[in-house]
Every structure is written in C-alpha cells, then in structure tokens.
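Support request from a user on the community tier.

User writes: "When I paste my structure tokens into the form, the page sometimes reloads and wipes my input. The last time it worked, I copied everything first. Here is what I submitted, just in case something in the input itself triggers the reload:"
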C-alpha cells in the first residue's frame, strides 16, 4: 500500500516540471519569431552578448580566406553523404573573422570531397546565426588533436577552430542563405523549440500519479470492506 502512495508526489512534481519546460519552450518560440522578423544584423566589431544573436539573421561584408577553410565530414543530404564547407570571412573594416557554413558538397565514390572553390574578392554574405556543438560522445576533443585533422574535421566547435587555427573568430557561425552566390547546396532545418513534447511528458506523469492514486483507493476500500465483515 505504501509503495503506491510514495511515488505520487514525485509523479506530480515531474509533471509540473515538464509544464514549466513547455512554458520555456513556448517563450523561446516567441523569441524566435520576433528575432526572425528583425532586419539582418551587420557584423563588425566584437560581440558583447552572443546569445542575443540566436535566431537572428546576420550580414557581413568581407573576403573569404581559403587558407582557413575546413570540411565537416559525414554530413547527410537525403540519402547521400558529403561535407559541409566552413570558410572564414575576413570582415571589412574590423579585421575580424566570422565562420560561414557555405553549404553541402557531395563525396566521391572513394569518400573524398568534390571541389570546394573559394570565391575571390569582396562580397556581401547573409545568413542565420548558428552555434555549433560537439556530438554527445566525443573521443577526440583536444585542441592539439584538432591541429592534426587537416582540412577534414569530424565536427566543429568555435573553441576548437580558434585553438587549431590560432585565429580568433566571432562567437557565431553564419548559415549562408541559399540565395547568396558562391556557395553550395544549402538546406538548413530551422531550429524550433518543441513545447508539445514536454506537454506530452507532463500528461504521462500526471496519468501515472492518477493511476497510483486510484489503485491505492481501491485497495484501501477493499481492505476496509474485508475488515468490516463479521464472522
């Protein structure tokens, strides 16, 4: 009997926590829509608050640098495997650099990348702010190891890039717009907070609490009925 009662407060607390998480995701979705409606932010000098760039459209004018270009391996496009092309853009006027994901290129039958030429001359680049993260399970995250990766990297973080290339970059990556010239295939999934998932989890936890309560009541009533019967 006690085992049925004890988990009920826990189930209710977990349900309330999931409702709170759903509210946070709802607020994030609202921020996404508000920031997506803003005009593109011109990148130039140092960025005081990188988090304020999340979901923002960005614009920068400068020159791509072939020397710092890297390829991120095992990027899928449909049923094909290829690479994402990451090229630093030297921003005009500031001397700073921002990494631009110029899109996807295919791999050859041997697994090598097709050509990824770098545009020459000054150009205007637009795109959406993106903050790369390492995979959940990483075997090689040491900057010294990254220096030996050469042109082909298994994944990208800004800290690894700065350490391996000995180059400071803006604390954000630009996912270049498909309409921009000088790039490759660009299909960027929009990051959208999923409030429905947390609402579903909340319903499940409240359901567990209700089931445990109903079972406890039925067993309590049955026990009382048995105890109230005479010889």
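"...and here is what came back when it finally went through:"
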């Amino acid at each position: 009997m006690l085992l049925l009662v004890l988990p009920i407060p826990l189930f209710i607390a977990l349900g309330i926590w999931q409702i709170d998480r759903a509210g946070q995701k709802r607020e994030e979705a609202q921020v996404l829509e508000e920031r997506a409606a803003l005009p593109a932010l011109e990148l130039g000098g140092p960025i005081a608050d990188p988090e304020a760039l999340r979901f923002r459209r960005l614009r920068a004018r400068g020159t791509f640098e072939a020397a710092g270009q890297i390829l991120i391996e095992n990027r899928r496009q449909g049923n094909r495997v290829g690479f994402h092309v990451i090229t630093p853009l030297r921003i005009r006027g500031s001397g700073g650099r921002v990494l631009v994901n110029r899109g996807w290129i295919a791999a050859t039958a041997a697994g090598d990348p097709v050509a990824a030429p770098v545009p020459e001359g000054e150009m205007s680049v637009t795109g959406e702010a993106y903050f790369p993260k390492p995979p959940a399970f990483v075997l090689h995250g040491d900057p010294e190891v990254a220096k030996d990766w050469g042109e082909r990297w298994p994944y990208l973080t800004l800290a690894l890039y700065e350490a391996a290339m000995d180059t400071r970059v803006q604390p954000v990556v630009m996912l270049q717009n498909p309409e921009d010239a000088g790039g490759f295939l660009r299909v960027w999934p929009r990051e959208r907070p999923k409030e429905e998932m947390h609402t579903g989890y909340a319903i499940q936890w409240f359901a567990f609490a209700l089931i445990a309560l109903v079972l406890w009541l039925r067993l309590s009533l049955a026990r009382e009925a048995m105890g109230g019967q005479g010889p």
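Agent notes: The reload is a front-end session timeout and is unrelated to the input. The chain has two domains: 2-25+195-228, 56-176. The radius of gyration is 26 Å. Escalated to web team.
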